[in-house]
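Hi U.,

Before I forget, here's the chain from the pilot set. I'm dumping it here mostly so it's searchable later in email.
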Amino acid sequence: LESRTERIERMKTSCFPSTTLVIRPTSTRPVPATHTLRRTTTQQHALLKERDMASADSGATRDPMSAQNPSGKVSYQAAINALLTEDLPVDHNELEAKVTGELPKWLDGALYKNGPGTYKNLMHLFDGYSCIAKTRFADGRAYVSNKQLKSQAWQQYAASGQQPQLAEFLTSVSILQSLKGFLLGLLGLGPGFTDNATVNILPVPGDVHRGIAMTEDIPGTYEVNLENLETVRQVKYSDKLPGILTTAHPSVMPDGSIVNFTSAPGGRYTVYRQKPGAPVREKLAEVPMRARVPCWIHDFKCSENYMLLPETPCYFNLKALALGTRAEFAVMDWYGDQSALVHVIPLDGKGPVRTFRAPNYFTFHYMNVYEEGSKLHMDFSHHKDPEMLNTLYLDVMRKGERAITKGPLRRLTIDLDKPDQEATITDLMRDNSSYHQCEFPSVNPDYMGKPYRYGYSAGSVPPHTYSNAVVKYDVQQGETKVWHEAGAIALEPVMVPRQTEDGTAVAEDDGVVLTMVTDANAKCFVLVQDASSFEELARVWLPYNLAYSFHGRFAPSAKR
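Structure:
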C-alpha cells in the first residue's frame, strides 16, 4: 500500500505537473512532501481546467510535449524566444484579460512595467527599446494595455527600418557617431548615448495620471500618461545640476519627494532631492568620486535618515563608451583588488558625508536598508564580480549557453559609531541553494527604508539557465518560500499591500505579489500570489506576448 506521502506526490504529479511551491525552513533537513504543495485536489483540477480554457481562448493548443525537448526535459527556449523577440512591437489599447483563479476584490489599481518592446538588430538584454505595459485590476477583473515609448532613439530606429541610430548600452553605431554623441552628451549639447528610457517607470507620487519612464542618463527621462500610456514629453530640468549619468532607481521618500544623484566622468556625484512633480532638483550633497571615472551604480537605497551611495570597483570604460567597443565586462572594467566604498549622506542636508570601506562585491540591486541604533543594515544580491553582464548578450541567451551566476541575498552592516571599522557582509538565509540567485528584489513599499521581515525576488531552481522562480524571504528566520514552474521565466515581483477602506495598516505580508511570467508555451501572464502563504491565487493571461520587462510599480486607483 502506498503511504500518505507517496499518494500526495502522485496527486501532485498527475494533477499539477509543473508548478510547485517549496517551503524552506530554518533547518537544512529535507522538507516533507506534504509541505511541498498546499492546494487541494479539487482546486488543482479547477485551476488546470481554467488554464486549458485560457489557452484555447488565446488560440493556442495545449500539448504537454510542446515545451519538451527530445530528452523529455522541459525547455525554456519558447519562453526566451518570446521574451527576446525581434518582432516589431504593436501598441494595444485596453483590453479585458482572461483570468484563471480568483483575483482579490480589494485589488484596485494598476501594475506598470517598463522594458524592451523588441530586440531586432540589437546585441544585449539592456539595449531594447522601451515599451510600457499596464495591468489594471478592478472588481475582481483585469485589463491590459501597452504602448511603445516614443523617444528620439525609438523614432529614429523605427524610421530607419529597425537600425539603431544612437548607441545603446552595448549596441554601437559607427565610431564617428559614437564619439560625436559621447562628447556632445558630456557638454550638454546633445542626447549623449541614448534617450531610450527602458529601465523603470515611476508613477508620480500624488498624481494618478502621470508617470516617469527613465534610464541611466538624464536625457532618457520621459513623462508618460498613465491613463492611455501615451508619451507626453521628454523631461527637462530647470536647475543647473551637473552630470549626465544617473540611476533609474530613485528612492521615493514618505513625503513623496524623490532622492537620486547625477554624475559625469571627471566630476562628482551630486545627490539631490526633488519635490513631487517639480522640475527643480535641490542639491543635498556632493560626493567625491574614488577615481576620475565614475563607478557604475545601478541602484542605491535610503533609510529614514540617510542615503547610502555604494561604489563598487566596477568602473565605466570610457574608451568603450566613446567608440562603441567592448570592455572586459560589457562596457565596464573590474578592479577586483579594490574594496567597495559606501558613502553615508544625511538626508536633512546637515552633517558631513561619511565614507566606509566594505569587502569587495558587485551587485545590480539592493532589497532594502534600515537603521538599528547606530547601525545601518543594507540587504542586496551579492555577486563576486560583474560576470553576469557578459551572460546577457542576446546571442548567448538565445542559444541557452549562459550559466546563471550565484547571487545570494546578503547584508552589509555599517556602525556609525565606529568610523574606522570596515563594514561587514554576512549571509541572511540558511540555504542559498534553494533560490540560487536573488534578482529584482523588492519589499512591501510601506516598509522601504524601515525595519522589515519579508522580501521578494526572482530566483532559479535547477536545472536552470534563466530565472524560473519567484522567491519570498524571511530575513529574520532565514527561511524561503519558492514558487517554480518548469519552462517558465519569471521577472520582477511587485508586492502590493492589502488595501483597506479606512486606510488602516495591515500585516507586513498581508497582500499579493504580482509577477510577469512567460510560460513554456510562450504565453505571457501576470502571476498573482498571496504574499503571506505564497499560494498562487490567479493568473491574468495577456492576449498578446510582451518582450522582457525590467522594473515597475503598482499604483492604487484614485478612489483609494
